[in-house]
Amino acid sequence: MSTRALISRPLISVEEYLASSYKPDCDYVDGHIEERNLGERPHSRMQGRLIVLLNGQAASGAEVLPEVRVQVKPSRFRVPDICIAVDHSDDPILTKPPFLCIEVLSPEDRMSRIEARIKDYLEMGVAYVWVLDPQTKQAYVATAPEGLREVKTGVLTTANPAFEIPLAEVFR
Amino acid sequence: MSTRALISRPLISVEEYLASSYEPDCDYVDGHIEERNLGEKAHATLQLRIGAYLLTHYERSGAVAATELRIRVSPTRIRIPDVCVFLGDPGEEVPTKPPYICIEVLSPEDRMSRVEKRIQDFLEMGVSYVWVLDPQTKQAYVATAAEGLREVKTGALTTANPIFEVSLAEIFR
Fold first, then answer.
1. Is domain B38-171 classified as CATH 3.40.50.300?
2. ipTM, 2 dp
């Protein structure tokens, strides 16, 4: 049994989560606060590089947002490392599905937690989820029809709007 | 920085590892002993179920399925897949010949980067297929050298030449 299963923390409400700030920001999953793994240099470096590359290709109407809260379900908020919103909104929290969510892996990220995050995004209606591992220099794309697939073409792509990010640029 | 990075343990030799037994057994990676996550009911049940399925359906055609067999994936690395399948008797006690299929059953604590490294070791050794199964989410993945890791969306784990086919409904029931 994992340690997590032995620790019982009081549930907090959506309202309490939304009125709170965490450093770094946390996910909210059905009353529980879930910490995100980040803060290490490879993670931070890759996140910065991706923001620059995506901003360079973002057409008008597509907004590149680092670490914004996304309400994936009434009782769940996820904070992707980066997302691209196309909702033309000024709302502080995204309640409509972003076009793309990006997760940069840290060495401590459990596969089961990544699967759960991807599932939440796809069920919300996110078109593309990209998962990048700075340690192994591997990249994955998840979509609702195809599930998770490793990128073997050397380029992360989307359609409508089109983004094309060479892995050599991201992992350099 | 992770806790792991702060702990320095003495390296052990391949010979010392091979002469040792661990409960549960551990991987050996370039002088380091790496614990494997297992022992939970969901992991144990799925491991048994897929092993039994492969034995029942493919042993007669000459396939040899084994659970937790040490595989020498490189001169300095020994990995222990939860289940592996050879096309015929591998001969050695610690095989150096690549299995046809290696199967990893995920535990909730399995780090994605560790899973990626294990897959990479198997594929670089020459393993044709690596199957990764998550009993919690009932998701399955196949990794090959040509295509990398892909989630299975067809409802069945399959191989070509020779053909193996395992229905996900059978093993995740």
1. no
2. 0.81
